[in-house]
Amino acid sequence: MDLKCDPGLGSACSQKDECSEPKSVCHNGTCICGTGYYDINGVKVIGGTCTSKVGLGSSCSQADACSDTNALCSNSECTCRSGFYDDNGSSDQGGICQQNSEFHYV
């Protein structure tokens, strides 16, 4: 009997549908979580599970858990990076990180 093990997250792969973890894809020869998901074990560890990224104001446990590309996980909460603000206000969940604008007067 010939058994084949499908690669998990962080493992080498060669085809897009070869990775065993649901919601994962083969990207540049490695199984990674697809768009909108992150590996709860971290990207440098083989194995893990893809879980949905979370929005601003939501609790998080690692840097890539936040869905907004201009957000980071700080004090266990997704917040906007320096130079950005939450367009939904700082007390509500949700919103989008917008770039701060500087006004120049002539």
TrEMBL record:
<dbReference type="InterPro" id="IPR006149">
    <property type="entry name" value="EB_dom"/>
</dbReference>
<feature type="domain" description="EB">
    <location>
        <begin position="44"/>
        <end position="89"/>
    </location>
</feature>
<feature type="region of interest" description="Disordered">
    <location>
        <begin position="1"/>
        <end position="22"/>
    </location>
</feature>
<protein>
    <recommendedName>
        <fullName>EB domain-containing protein</fullName>
    </recommendedName>
</protein>
<dbReference type="Pfam" id="PF01683">
    <property type="entry name" value="EB"/>
</dbReference>
<feature type="domain" description="EB">
    <location>
        <begin position="9"/>
        <end position="42"/>
    </location>
</feature>
